[in-house]
Amino acid sequence: MESPIVLVTGAGGALGRAVRERLTRDGARLALLDRRAPTGETSGPAGDAAASQAPWAAAVDLLDEAAVADAVARAESELGPVRAALLLAGGFATAPAAETDLAALRGQLDLNLATAASVVRALLPRMTDRGEGTIVGIAAGQARRGGAGAAAYTASKAALAAYLRAVDEENASRGVRTVTVFPMGTLDTAANREAMPKADPAEWIDPARLAEVLAFAVRFGPRARLREVEVHPDA
Ligand SMILES: NC(=O)c1ccc[n+]([C@@H]2O[C@H](COP(=O)([O-])OP(=O)(O)OC[C@H]3O[C@@H](n4cnc5c(N)ncnc54)[C@H](OP(=O)(O)O)[C@@H]3O)[C@@H](O)[C@H]2O)c1
């Protein structure tokens, strides 16, 4: 079977690295987008053809719509049609609502919603023309159950989930579906270990396990589908 082409944003980040590793082992061909072009190192099984190919990668500011459209067009002309997109770019900010000015709110909406929407806009007409595509976004537990102390982050992740639901409703009949994955806790990343040295990482979610879920979301179907998935810490 031909290797599916999967576009990954935020591919140079902590979760991005785990996702690249997982998808490479699954035999996907990758188109990686991040502010700095992610390097190609992943470790697939020895002798695996997909794993031995360096992934396609581009440095792009995901808030620059023209640059995103250009990167998506280049990825498709050099690799082929993108079957699925994993929209991982995003980030966290803490501040209660009373201390969140509009600039901070807009900053989080840019980081967690607009970085995904720019890619969706570039990919959607291509996917609907082909009648096939899966778009997976990554929200956060705060968007499910509230996020005291992180008002803008919570709002931006809830907005991302609502946006992806709307994209799904508009395009599912044309073969394009969206999935939103909610990590219901902190990820065990180097940045989080440094930021929270007193916390017990055993209570956090292993990015490699979350990457398994994201890879599963990419290949799941047909005749049954995922829409929203919660992934909880196992502690
Ligand atoms: N880590 C957690 O505990 C946790 C929990 C729940 C949900 N999540 C979500 O999971 C996703 C991945 O998290 P992570 O820990 O892997 O984050 P990360 O290590 O910070 O990776 C995010 C990547 O996205 C890139 N990015 C951000 N804005 C961009 C832009 N405008 N253009 C191009 N690239 C951009 C970042 O580049 P720069 O560094 O250059 O900005 C970075 O490489 C995020 O959406 C995050 O909100 C994380």
What does this protein look like?
- Helix content is 44%, strand content 16%.
- By secondary structure, the chain is α/β, with parallel strands linked by helices.
- It has one domain (5-231): Rossmann fold, CATH 3.40.50.
- The chain has a seven-stranded parallel beta sheet with strand order 3-2-1-4-5-6-7, with helices on both faces.
- β1, α1 (14-25) and β2 form a beta-alpha-beta unit.
- α1 packs across α8 (207-219), α3 (65-79) runs parallel beside α4 and α4 (102-130) packs parallel to α6 (151-171).
- It is globular.
- The structure holds NADP nicotinamide-adenine-dinucleotide phosphate.
> How many individual helices?
8
Which class do the helix and strand fractions yield?
Answer: alpha/beta
CATH fold topology: Rossmann fold
> Largest sheet, if any?
7 strands, parallel
> What would the principal axes of the Cα set say about the shape?
globular
Number of domains: 1
Q: What is the CATH architecture assignment?
A: 3-Layer(aba) Sandwich
Text of the CATH class: Alpha Beta
Full CATH superfamily name: NAD(P)-binding Rossmann-like Domain
- What's the overall average pLDDT, rounded? 93
Cα radius of gyration in angstroms: 17 Å
Order of helices and strands: EHEHEHEHEHHEHHE
**Strand numbers in spatial order across the main sheet:** 3-2-1-4-5-6-7
Give the DSSP E fraction (strand runs of 2 or more residues).
Answer: 15-25%
Bound molecules: NADP nicotinamide-adenine-dinucleotide phosphate
